[in-house]
Every structure is written in structure tokens, then in C-alpha cells.
Fold this sequence. Notes:
Structural class: mainly alpha
Keywords: Sigma factor, Transcription, Transcription regulation
Number of strands: 0
Domain RNA polymerase sigma-70 region: 9-74
Domain DUF6596: 175-268
Shape: globular
Distance between the termini: 46 Å
Helix content: over 70%
Pfam family, one: Sigma70_r4_2
Strand content: under 5%
Largest sheet: none
GO molecular function, one term: DNA binding
Radius of gyration: 23 Å
Amino acid sequence: MAVGVEEVFRAEYGRAVAVLVRFLGDIDLAEEAVQDAFTTALRTWPESGVPPSPAGWIITTARNRAIDRLRRESTREARHAEAAQLYAPGTPAEEGPVRDDRLRLIFTCCHPALATQAQVALTLRLLGGLTTAQIARAFLVPEPTMAQRLVRAKAKIRDARIPYRIPRDADLPDRVRGVLAVVYLIFNEGYGGREDLCAEALRLGRLLAELMPDEPEVIGLLALMLLIEARRPARETPEGTLILLADQERGRWERGLIAEGQALVRRCLRRDQPGPYQIQAAINAVHSDAPTAAATDWRQILALYDQLMALAPSPVVALNRAVAVAETAGPQPALDLVDALDLDGYHAFHAVRADLLRRLGRGTEAVRAYEAAIARTDNAAERGYLERRRAELTPE
């Protein structure tokens, strides 16, 4: 994809799909129209130049493509009427508590009729423009499995005639779990190298906090993302080399984001209604409190992971807890915990295991674990770090 078009795609794909879904009420038609618009941009922008308002150009072109297609399909008279309405100026905006198109689409996709994983996957596809392979990696499932989930989710929306409309105030709390999962996965995908997705997740998180200020998990998620984002300036060298948390120059952390995140964590603590995002935010707040890696209060972090395992147990949480165990009880107890987990497809599992084996002096096994981690990540910075760690080892 040409550079100018790629930048617009990353920044505006989700917005364009959200706007078109609101106009059309049809996911497939909206996606196809936006994709057609970007295909047209690839063909015309290299000669004519990027327009002054590229997002508006994409949305207008996509809308026109959709109208043309609807008018060609003479057997779909109702769609003809819809297409004619799209040309009508001054169409009043739909009223409701959610005014942002992208946030509205997230709430729409997170309808209770869909399974939670389908809600998350579909919204990542529509809003983030993520490929099926990227979404499959986020869920730790094979790509064909995720492709089937996306097809089924769209079919469910179509067959059940789930409306594309703003949820009422009373519906918002029932949708919040899937919405938060979507926003956090968008953030995580962005933290792997796409700053635009991180910025979008933070924007949506702030909107959610304004919309639902009394939902502790909403505040917890925003705090969590702020505290993680604060470390971005120290996460890589100017050459793109990954720097792990323990080795980061903490003076480069963004103190304003840390202060905001910590204030939100304290707000959650006062409410005393703990949830998974709040606990993860508290863990990151402990990290941000430590002036050096050596000063980190790992016992407090382990206690928080114990609480997280009680509330929301998962193999990934158990893996992260094992890292805290390694810092409090040593690498062997941690390795025993890691070896009991079923996370073979997850690169971080093998990376943690490799580090523990290295600390135990088991070089040959550590090399194999690093190789397994390298084979399971397509992030260039992570792969480069893992390759350097592997090269440092002399097999026994």
C-alpha cells in the first residue's frame, strides 16, 4: 500500500466504516465500500496527490460506491430507497447517549446476542482494520478459526436483524464487558508497534469514562492504558531496539500520564469494588512508583496477581504471576508454574520460560525456548530482542 494511503488507512479506516455502518446499517456493504474507496485512492492519489481532507474523501467516495451498488441491485427495492435517502441533506443525527461513531459501533457490535469473543473480534476487524491473522494472534487461536468466528458473527447480526443503533442508557452496563475488552485489545495491538491504535484506544477510554463515570472497571481500564502508555518513550531505542521494563530509563517515562493513571487507581481503591482492569492498573501503578527496577515491590505485585487470579483466572494471568514469583521466590518455583501452563502458541510463554532457564544456567534449553518464542512473533522489535538474548547464550 502506498505510504500516503497507508497512513490514512491506519488513522481513518475505523471511522470510515463506523460512519458507513450508521448510514447503511450493513456491515458487509460498509466494509466493501470503504475498501473500494481505499483501492480507488491507491490508483488515483499517486497522480493527483493526497486530498486536503483525506478522511472526508474516503468517506464520500465509499458512500458513493455504496449508493451505486445499491442502485444496480434492482431486486432490492428497499435498498434503493435507503440509497436515495443517503443523498438527502440535513438528515438528523440519531439521538442517544453515545455521540461518537466509533464508540457507537463498538457498543453495537457488543450486542448480548453475540458471544463475547465474537463481539471483540468483529469490532477489532471493523474499527482497527486488523487482518484476520492479527486478530487470531490476539486471541491465541488459528487463523481459520478466527475467520469462521467473524463470518458467524456477521451472519448472526444479519439473521437476527440486530439493529445498528445507539444503545439506550439502560443497555450500556450490559454491554460494557465486551466494550472494555475491545478497547484493551485495540490498545495492545497498537502497543506492538501501531501508535495510532494506542491513541484511538485512549481516546475511546476517555470517552467511556465520561459516559460511564460510575463504572469502576471503565476507570480501571483507562488507568491501566495510561500507565502503560507512559512507558512508551523508554520502551525502544531510536533504532527500534526493544528495552524491557527492568532496563528502561525511568526518567523518560511520561510523568503526567503516570500521575493521571495513579489518581484514577486511587479513585478505584476508594470505591472498593475490585475488578480485573482495576487490579492490572494497580500492578502497573506499583511499577510506576519504583524509582529503579531493584526497588520494585514485587511482593505487593504478587499479592495483586493472586487477587487477579481469584477474580479472572487465565493462563496468561498465571504466566504473568509466575514472573512475580520468580522475583520473590526464585526462578525454579516460577519455572514449575510456567511448565504447567498450556500456552505453546503464545510467544511470551516461551520468552518467559527462556529467561527462567537462562537464570538457572540451563543454556541449551534456554536457546530452544528463545527459538520457540522467535518463531511465534512477527513483531520486529520483539524478535530482535529475543534473537539478541539467544545469541548471548553459550549452550552447556
